[in-house]
Design goal:
It is an enzyme of class 4 (lyase). Specifically catalyzes the decarboxylation of meso-diaminopimelate (meso-DAP) to L-lysine. GO terms for molecular function: diaminopimelate decarboxylase activity; pyridoxal phosphate binding. One of its GO terms (biological process) is lysine biosynthetic process via diaminopimelate. The chain is α/β, with parallel strands linked by helices and 463 residues long. Helix 8 links the parallel strand 11 and strand 12. The strands form 3 sheets. Strands 4, 14, 15, 16, 17, 18, 19, 20 and 21 form a 9-stranded mixed sheet that branches. An 8-stranded parallel beta barrel has the order 5-6-7-8-9-11-12-13, surrounded by 7 helices. It is globular. 28% of the residues lie in helices and 23% in strands. The structure holds ligand LLP. Ligand LLP binds next to helix 10 and helix 11.
Length: 463
């Protein structure tokens, strides 16, 4: 899914028909800072360190596979987003990318809000003390029980995703005697340039209410007619892992057009628009993500310009980055188990995790990079496929990459940029135990989500 489509590398190039892999870096020992968390570096012995702690120590203390997350990087990214958007906008971290109680506390301390999309995420947020008014509740099929909990907790906004939900939320709010703040999620008809499964603004999909055919205008009409709902704005999320701002611009323009129509029809200027998340990160050296201040400027320029031409007051903007905050802050550490060279083809490197800790490669054809991190090596690069230990030939973690030819069982390798949608999409396939998340800050490492145990598996199995 990264945009890289580079010429074949020097080894085995003749047999690579897919052609979607990067040529090896001039020196495989050099870590490309674009894809690694900020405090990652190599120590004098060549071992990778995170926050000053060598991976061998991390592996010894916490085991493998494990996700290691750079807390200072996470916090810095939160601040960068908050600073870029400034006091007249709101940044909601999308909890689906990765959520835990520690994360909720960091968000609070760094002044971010939180977008949740299930009862489980809402519980985690509230349990860790996130003030309810700083929570946005999303989802295309929130259950009645979830809506009740969100209303009772007093969440700052519920994002209405369907006509049924308008009525459902209104009814629940009325029965609780509250006026619930809501936004309406619209689909603006943009084809985002990303994988089909994570594009969400074209009309032929389950999310949102289409702007086309006046459906969104009708949703506004119905919402405004209900006393127990306070319509604060319009929401649009066009998809994920997007680099090109063009889709956001079209989306902003169409949402502002709807605001103008609402003003003309109802005499109401809705005060907010939410442009969703979806900003891409670097998974490989070929990806060039934008900085938050660039994104903030591009979005606010377009909204301001469109509002001026429609003679509307500029609404308060909110955004919902998930991956762009947590994605680059973590790597997954694996131990190499078996190595299977296929002469003239590639070498399969099996690690102690796999699709249960990173389903993205199998699901979206996502591209990742990988490095030998327990030592450096001067050996030739060899073309590898990093695979897991599951009973599937599609159990691929990194499809095409280069590692030194002297790689051996017991070496530690790491896959960077696994902070988003890896632990949160992890599974127990083959009764795998989901790995821990270890946060590192100022030379200290601590478990924030512990490793699953076999007792955890058996506890759920009550038959
Ligand atoms: N806001 C809404 C309403 C969303 O649905 C999402 C993601 C976000 C914000 C955050 O998007 P982000 O900035 O993290 O791209 N599992 C897929 C991604 C699915 C995203 C779903 N919604 C993946 O691994 O790429």
């Amino acid at each position: 899914m990264s945009r890289s489509a580079h010429p074949a590398g020097p080894r085995h190039a003749d047999v690579m028909t897919e052609g979607h892999y990067s040529a090896p870096a001039a020196d495989l020992n050099v870590l490309d800072e674009k894809v690694w968390a900020r405090t990652v570096t190599r120590d004098a012995d060549g071992a990778l360190t995170l926050g000053g702690i060598a991976v061998a120590r991390l592996a010894e203390e916490f085991g493998t596979p494990a996700y290691f997350l750079d807390e200072s990087d996470f916090r810095a990214r939160c601040r960068a987003w908050a600073d870029a958007f400034g006091p007249d906008a709101d940044v909601f971290y999308a909890g689906k990318a990765f959520l835990s109680r520690a994360v909720v506390r960091w968000l609070q301390e760094e002044g971010l809000n939180l977008d949740v999309c299930s009862g489980g995420e809402l519980t985690t947020a509230l349990d860790a003390g996130m003030p309810a008014e700083r929570i946005a509740f999303h989802g295309n099929n929130k259950t009645v029980a979830e809506i009740e909990r969100a209303v009772e907790a007093g969440v700052g906004r519920i994002v209405l995703d369907s006509f049924q939900e308008i009525v459902r939320v209104a009814h629940i709010a009325r029965s609780h005697g509250v006026r619930q703040r809501v936004q309406i999620r619209v689909t603006v008809g943009v084809e985002a340039h990303t994988h089909e499964f994570i594009a969400t603004a074209h009309e032929d999909q389950k999310f949102g209410i289409a702007l086309a055919d006046g459906q969104a205008a009708e949703a506004v009409r119905r919402t405004l007619a209900l006393d127990s709902l306070e319509l604060i704005g319009i929401h649009s999320h066009i998809g994920s892992q997007i680099f090109d701002m063009a889709g956001f611009e079209v989306s902003a323009r169409r949402v502002v057009q709807l605001l103008a129509e609402v003003r003309d029809e109802h005499g109401v200027e809705l005060p907010e628009i939410d442009l969703g998340g979806g900003l891409g990160i670097a998974y490989t050296s070929e990806d060039d993500p934008r900085e938050p201040h660039d994104i903030a400027k591009a979005l606010s320029d377009i909204v301001t310009r469109e509002c001026e031409s429609a003679k509307l007051r500029t609404p308060r903007i909110s955004v919902e980055p998930g991956r762009a905050i947590v994605g680059p802050t973590a790597f997954t550490l694996y131990e190499v188990g078996t190595i299977k060279p296929l002469e003239g083809l590639r070498t399969y490197v099996s690690v102690d995790g796999g699709m249960s800790d990173n389903i993205r490669t199998a699901l979206y054809d996502a591209e990742y990079s990988v490095a030998l991190v327990s030592r450096t090596s001067e050996a030739e690069p060899m073309l590898v496929r990093v695979v897991g230990k599951h009973c599937e030939s599609g159990d691929i973690v990194v499809k095409d990459a280069f590692l030194p030819a002297d790689l051996a069982p017991g070496d530690l390798i790491a896959v960077p940029a696994t902070g988003a949608y890896c632990r949160s999409m992890a599974s127990n396939y083959n009764h795998a135990l989901r790995p821990p998340v270890v946060a590192v800050r100022d030379g200290e490492a601590r478990v924030i989500v512990r490793r699953e145990t076999e007792e955890d598996l058996l506890r759920l199995d009550v038959g």
